[in-house]
Amino acid sequence: MIIEWQGIGIISLILVACMLVITLLEKILKLKPETRRKGFHMAMGLSMLALPYLFKNVWSAVVLAGIAFVFLYAIRKLKDKTPLGSVLYGVKRKSLGEFFYIIAVLLVFYLSKGDKILYSIPILILTFADSTAALIGKIYGKKQLSEGTEDKKSLEGSFAFFCVAFMATLVPLLLFTEVARENVLHISLIVGFIIALIEMISSNGSDNLLIPLSAFAFVRHLMVLTTEELRINLLIVFALIVIVFIISKVKVFSKMAIAETIVVGYLTIILYGWYALIPPLLLLLTVMTFPLPNVKERHNKYDVKIVETNVILGLAICLIVSIIGQKEQIYMTYVTTYAMHLAINSYVRFKFERGCPCIKSGVFAFTKGLVFVFVPGLLIQRFALSYVLDWKILILMVACLLGSVLAIAYSKRNEETEEISVKNGYLHLKIAAIFIGLLGIIQFLESGIIFYGI
Predict the structure, then answer these.
(1) Is the separation of the CB atoms in 330 and 252 below 8 Å?
(2) For residue 71, is it within any domain?
(3) pLDDT tens sequence across 406-426
């Protein structure tokens, strides 16, 4: 293991010099806190572009990341005692963005395996698109996309992000690869649009982690597709936009929740397949139907965090499947996740919005999850995936579905009202996660199908 100390020293000196220069400019030009922060953000990104040219092994990058982590943590702790603290911490908001930044750069450097294009495009998007969006949104942002407690994002800032991300993908692919021009255009449009949505729904500095990792995954995935496959991907994105907007007419989503739903839909398709989109679509279509919402329910607003609590577990299963395979065997576990979310949400609707007794609410909720998500999923697995699951596992899944209804009924036994809130959303997620975890363990012990082939 050879540590390339010369490269580490060069990058470290550049970053310290940039911070000192911005501190000096702050006093001369009276720079605003957001301008200082994003100025250092861009300087840091530009210096990170040199990593593939300075380092031949990942351990040098690990050492550099460790030094940067300690340095930034020290500044964070001493921000009120050193003028350098005003560069990163003049903005009065809670964020771990600078640490996510280090982790993201290290991961992209490792995953790119020396491929300069796969490394540079995510870093370019993080460096320029994110900074441009923040500054444009701060200065010119008039049309707010965020609602309630969601992080502030503007249409102008998101559009600026899309434009810069589009160019940051287009130019390197055109100049430094053999990818056909039409394919480059398609890839740049998809990456620019989806990453702009991801930036829109990110919070607490998590965009510094999600933007580069998502950009890396999308570029790597899309570069190997044919022109026809890329056209299909564009059509999928357009179809998701149409479907989500139609659904939003029934269930009142915030604008950022709509963006998150589109992103989740696209990720689900590329990680698992088109058939994996059916369970979350059925959840969205039926949770506020059968029966239709009453007057009170029509005024409920579902924000980005509420949507997140309903899809994060399913998305995690999609990610696992993309790594280990076994799509057919795991599909009904995935379906059960969304069936439980439908049943839990339906119990809350019947019990607190419709005033039904507990037992009646439980029966209705269980039946709804079984009929509208579980059974269609079973048919897809049998006829589209040509796979028949062991009947004992199916009974176990139905028991988990029933157990999720009993768990939400027990946890809400002493409550007279229920509100649409992140706290309650995470309670629903916790219940679903416990039963899916138990289901996975039992399946593994019974037949080993989930981790077979690792």
Answers:
(1) no
(2) no
(3) 999 999 887 877 766 777 888
